[in-house]
Amino acid sequence: MGTSKGLRYGRRFFAALPSSPRCKLCNSPFHGAFGPIMRLLGKAPWPANPKYCSACFKQLAEHRSGAEIECSFLFADVRDSTPMAESMRPAEFRGLMDRFFQSASRVLIDYDAVVDKFAGDEVIGIFIPALTGELHALRAIEAGRALLSATGNDTDEPWVRVGAGVNTGVAFVGAVGEGDLVELTALGDPVNVAARLASEAAAGELLVTAAAAASAHLADAGLEHRSLALKGKSELTNVVVLGPS
Asked: What is the pLDDT of residue 115?
């Protein structure tokens, strides 16, 4: 991902152009008025992996590298998706999830995250120093709270119920996979903890680990604290409970 200002400025410039879906790395739009221009610039969706534009995928495939770096992770889950799917027509449920993923994608891009993936009823964002500087934990927390607001969880009747978790720690970030299945992703215990937190959070809650709160210099006096027994962890995980922004 590099550390140049040009990378950050380029992502922000492309993010300002309509419309989604976008390249996972550079944010260049695949549709809308600028889609044809992006294709002329070599930024059409890569046929075998349309999450990336052709230019970015070629670089990712050629430079299959990565590094262990401190970064932050945001996981957000739709609550009660299984009973919702059971009670709705399939097309109606798909429309709801599409709306959630689009809202989440906009928030993550606005807060300089790499949109790692959409998986089932979950969205994952990676906040790395190359894009956020040393503020990656704060940006992840702000994005989590903004996502709760964007999905209506700052009201008594959200249009979709969402819980989220943020963690900070050293993880491997880089290219993983072979052939046309290569992906930019993050691996390691901090990623798993963030995923567990999102599963534990109630609708309208953002659970932030002590590590993420400390990295973000979060003033947590007067906020709710919990100690959670997360699946697969031998010790309790201390978290701060936040709500929508």
From this structure: 86
- Asked if the peptide bond before residue 83 counts as cis, ω within 30 degrees of 0, the response is no
Distance CA 203, CA 205 (A): 6
Say whether pTM exceeds 0.70.
yes
Beta bridge partners of residue 122, listed in sequence order? 77, 119
What confidence tens digit (pLDDT) does each residue in 59-111 have?
A: 877 877 789 999 999 999 999 999 999 999 999 999 999 999 999 989 998 99
Reduce the DSSP state of residue 168 to 3 states and report it: strand
For the chain, give every domain's residue range: 5-62, 66-242
What one-character-per-residue DSSP string does 122-163 give?
EEEEEE-HHHHGGGHHHHHHHHHHHHHHHTTTTSSS-SS-EE
Nearest one of 40, 39, 17, 37 to 27, comparing CA atoms: 17
Pick among 2.60.40.200, 3.40.50.300, 3.30.70.1230, 1.20.1600.10: CATH of 66-242? 3.30.70.1230
Written as six digits, the tokens of 81 are 């998706």
DSSP codes of every residue in 77-127: EETTHHHHHHHS-HHHHHHHHHHHHHHHHHHHHHTT-EEEEEETTEEEEEE
DSSP 8-state symbol, 6 = H
